[in-house]
Design brief:
Number of strands: 7
Number of helices: 7
Number of domains: 2
Oligomer: single chain
CATH architecture of the largest domain: 3-Layer(aba) Sandwich
Strand order of the largest sheet: 3-7-6-4-5
CATH class of the largest domain: Alpha Beta
Radius of gyration: 41 Å
Largest sheet: 5 strands, mixed
Helix content: 40-55%
Length: about 240
């Protein structure tokens, strides 16, 4: 123990006297210099007053805490109610929007066909409608994009399967057919246009059907003999999409 610590201990002992109660939160001390009967009776009286004061303050603290929790609870409830109302409003608005978009029909007998249905980004749609090579295809009909040429990635059976459909009125009333060269370079007016074209190509994959009314794309990744054989049936199932 250092000299400073020893002196501090002696000061505390002197201040405490023969008996003391220390309140650390206020650094205050209630002490008795002697332990005579008279002093003890006085101390008992003071202690009783302290107990009553403590109980009164604890009750006030408890009531204040309860009121504070009540106010916080009301605020949280109001906030949650507002959020729930906004969420409900959003759900209703979303439901209204979705109900106006025709639901994609369930396709049958598609086991082993790697297909997907995706919605196009607004920026991609704007590019397709105004600047792309497909802009004239944005009509009431859906349009079918597929590849032709020496670099065509399809199985040979694909052309044999799709060619008859391009002159069949059952299909031409609902679809525009767009055979696209599998090779060649494209030029773009801006980086934004180039990115939109890339986004669409990634969505279209190797074969796709675009629905201009819903801005959705049905696509197939990989056209082998099985997929080529299935193309007519897929187009038939999607006639009323």
């Amino acid at each position: 123990m250092t000299t400073a610590e020893g002196n501090a201990k002696l000061d505390f002992i002197k201040t405490c006297g023969n008996f003391c109660i220390v309140n650390p939160s206020k650094n205050q001390m209630l002490s008795l210099k002697s332990c005579s009967k008279k002093e003890l009776e006085k101390f008992e009286y003071v202690l009783d007053k302290y107990k009553k004061w403590l109980r009164r303050n604890l009750m006030q603290y408890f009531i204040a805490t309860l009121l504070m929790l009540l106010v916080i609870g009301m605020g949280v409830s109001s906030c949650n109610s507002k959020k729930a109302h906004e969420a409900q409003k959003t759900a209703i608005e979303t439901s209204s929007v979705e109900s106006s978009i025709p639901e994609f029909p369930g396709l049958t007998d598609m086991v082993g066909i790697d297909y997907s249905v995706k919605s196009l980004l607004d920026s991609t749609v704007a590019y397709l409608k105004t600047k792309s090579e497909y802009k004239d295809l944005y009509t009431d009909k859906k349009f079918v994009i597929y590849y032709i040429g020496a670099d065509c990635p399809y199985a040979q059976a694909f052309i044999s399967a799709i060619d008859p459909l391009t002159t069949d009125s059952t299909y031409t009333e609902k679809y525009n057919f767009y055979p696209q060269s599998a090779s060649g370079m494209k030029k773009f007016a801006s980086m934004e246009d180039a990115q939109a074209d890339i986004d669409f190509s990634n969505t279209c994959q190797e074969f796709c059907i675009v629905n201009p009314k819903t801005n959705q794309v049905f696509s197939i990744n990989g056209i082998g003999d099985k997929e080529a054989e299935k193309i007519p049936d897929i187009l038939k199932q999607l006639l009323d999409w």
